[in-house]
Fold this sequence. Notes:
- By secondary structure, this protein is mainly β.
- Helix content is 10%, strand content 56%.
- It is globular, with a radius of gyration of 18 Å.
Amino acid sequence: MNEANNYILLFGEPVDYPQQVSVDRQGKAYYKFNMAVERGSGIIDILPIVVEEDTAAYNTLADIDEKGEIVGAQLVIKGEVRTRNLKGKDSGKLDISVRAFEITEDDNYKGITNRVIITGHICKEIPTRTTPRGFTIADVTLAVNRGDGSDLSDYIPSVMWNSTATRASKKLRVGDVVEAIGRLQSREYIKDLGDGEKEPRTCYELSVSKYERLKTSEVSA
């Protein structure tokens, strides 16, 4: 787990059973399930969790499954936010999930339920916009190096609000490195496909509560 650049902690309940979604070139299988994570406001985010076969996280799920029901279990998950570009009929879409590296069952957990800390490069200029309710928003894409010896990066869509959004738009430039802290959230919307056809969709984004621009010397490899 690359805690230096990409770290997420979640507490919540699985709402469905893990299903195999892919197999890599080495024959390793990956399983996905959705977890309900409650905000302090009571809003529920439904977040996709991916677990690699034959890992500590996978074995924990197997143990929970043997003792009882995975759905509804109280789980603490530590891992990374991962993204990938989909291919085929979903080409052009960005798939976002949480890669779980540690899973523990804890019926008495009282800590933070959704915490993300990432360090990444600003990919695009940051314009601001105003919502119908008068909130100022800045959409930011952060490129986060995986730090696993590969050249891969995760491109994490993020949103900043009000004074944080205004400051980022004025102060940050493409290529700047920032540490962003916030939560991973889900948001439902209606996609207009044209010709009167519409489709409900869900997107996932990092809601940034605060950020800090870093010097190059402060960035972990």
